Amino acid sequence: MIISLALSLLAIASGTLLTYTYDEDALAASRLCNGACIGFACMALVGFVLALAFGLNAATLGISAALLASPLLLLTNSLKRDQINADIDQALKAISRASSKPDRWAFIYFLFYAGAAIVMWLVFDRALLEKPQGLYTGVLNNYGDLPFHISVITRFAYGQNFPPEDPTFAGARFTYPFLTDFVSAMFVRAGASLRNSMFIENWIVGVALVGVLHRFGLQLLRNRTAAILTPVLVILNGGFGWWMLFSDVNKTDAGVFQILRHIQHSYTILPDVTQGWRWGNAVTSLFVPQRGFLLGIPLAVIVFTQWWAAMKMKSVPPALAGGSKKRPNPPANAGGTDLISRRMLAAGFVAGLLPLIHAHSFIAVMGVGALLALINVRRWRDWLGFFVVASVIAGPQLLWSTHGSAVSTRAFIGWEFGWGHGDENVVWFWIKNTGVFIPLLILALLWKTDKYLVSRKLLYFYLPFTLCFIVPNMIKFAPWIWDNVKILFYWWIASAPIVALLLARLWNGDLWHRVIAGCLFVVLTLAGALDVYALVTKQGEFEEFDRDGVVFADMIKQQTPPKATILHAPIHNTPIFLTGRRSLMGYPGHIWTHGIDSGSREADIKKIYEGAADAPGLLAKYGVDYVVVDPQERSVMRVNDEFFGRYKEVVTVGEYHLYKVAP
User: Any idea where the domains of the chain sit in the sequence?
Assistant: First the structure.
């Protein structure tokens, strides 16, 4: 645990120091948030490359830490040291003023970030629960995803899965972006528990995400109210699902407070697709279940922020950009050509980290970047630098992950109109799922008094992001159409500051405008807030692995070699995922979303458990070393106990049995 925390602090410090090479005007808090995300991404990529050569062990962790500390060399530069000292002094003075003579905004910022840290702690504390009865999750949408992420972590930490193969489909190259889980695997190898290894990373990145979104809004809008609303609109996203609360109250004699104490379902997404609630709250549907997205979003937003900072700058000679005794300082939006280039090169570096962290985020970043480059063709050299750096870092990752892959490309790309609208009218589907967000967005873009609310420069910057909404409504980018949300959500992220700006403008008006702004804010966030409220108030626990299953997994780790291949039922929460051993086949639903055809293997597994005539041959064909027979196998298929009785039983815990079938 202590080593994991030390690695985390080193990653944050290194990433923060890197921001001094390109981001001239960031405050210390913004640097820490950006640095945490960049540092974790660098640690993951460096550690993985070393693990490919040497395995995941103490030496790999030590070398990774040494390489991760290389940005400390920036401290040898006196100018950088002076800048860092000035930032520290400024931060200390701000803290002193906030405690002795707090102004309104200092108080607001304190409440906002303290609240964000507390909420993120409560949220990710529920992601994985260790109880005497077994392992649970407190997030329903995490029930299917958590065992998969655990299987990725344990295969790296306990099974030395290098080069990586799919932990749920033995023998297939692993193409799912996994570096976020690899960080947790590094923490496990450093001595952290499985729960702590996930929580440390999740909480730090979750808090950093809030800071990154806040900085993005502030850079775009230069409006403190709108900037602080931006992460709130992203995190508490939802639609008109809050209307179901009234329906829930009408169905029972209990009052609304009783309903709120025992919330029975989500107010942003429902499993029954025919009801049309598919958008999902970011926290409960994306950040907790999809760990790669949690790190991918802030990295992408860091790129967007640097794009905007570079685009709004007017190129001036470097000497003038720095000011001098003989020359006046340039305008606030001016910057030396060198600074603009450094921002774009840094954006390329961060974008290049994305493919093995979150591939859909990489696609969104590069697609939007290509359109922005066409709009800003006069700065083609800066954009060329961005794409070259991004390609140099991302190219090897893409080639490595796709070479020899068992994934069917045709399963990922295809025409499908309207995302997950089902039988509903597409327009009503989107209004229903996003509430007043889209109408307010359109109103903000058209709002004009003496001048337009949204400047022309901001409009041109925003327009390419609309394709993150249009294209996923026409083309699917994954076998499961819902996964298009990984592209769609970037449209929401880019739109949130504009909607926040409209709310801020209304709030700055008279009393009636403030009332309207407050009501619109509640309507925009209430559905998402209900989902997050149910999570942080600990409503609901869902068993993943029972006590015997956890003990069974521990004994398997003691009794079997790390690279043993184990056959079990094709389900999502087998105890084998806790062991790090090779799984012949996991849940078909997960494997399908990865673009792998598992039909023939699933049929063969059923034959083996039935004890068919060719069962011994099939065991030899797949290189199976051990077979699990427990209540899960019996619940999904017929098990021939007489057939398995011929093999040696090596582990028994209650109704859990492990048979050694390899000679």
Answer: 544-660
Beta carbons within 8 Å of 305's beta carbon, 6+ residues apart: 212, 215, 216, 219
Cβ-based burial of 627 (10 A; exposed 0-12, middle 13-18, buried ≥19): buried
Share of the chain above pLDDT 90, in %: 85
429-439 per-residue burial string, b: 16 or more CB within 10 A, e: under 16:
bbbbbbbbbbe
Half-sphere exposure of 548 (CA within 13 A, CB side): 11
End-to-end CA separation in angstroms for the chain = 40
Decide if 146 contacts 128 (C-beta within 8 A). yes
Of 315, 335, 457, 345, which is closest to residue 24 (Cα–Cα)? 335
CA 156, chain centre distance (Å): 19
Query: What's the CA gap between 147 and 142, in Å, rounded?
Result: 9
Q: Give residue for tokens 């993943």.
A: 544
d(C-alpha 318, C-alpha 217), whole Å? 28
pLDDT at 175 over 50: yes
Backbone angles phi, psi at 408, to 5 degrees: -90, 115
Residue 425 CA to residue 549 CA, distance in Å, equals: 46
Task: Write the pLDDT tens digit of every residue in 423-467.
Answer: 899 999 999 999 999 999 999 999 998 899 999 999 999 999 999
Q: Exposed/middle/buried for 428, CB within 10 Å: 0-12, 13-18, 19+?
A: exposed
Tokens for 191, please give them.
């001595």
Distance, in Å, from the CA atom of 287 to the CA atom of 145, rounded to the nearest integer, reads 12
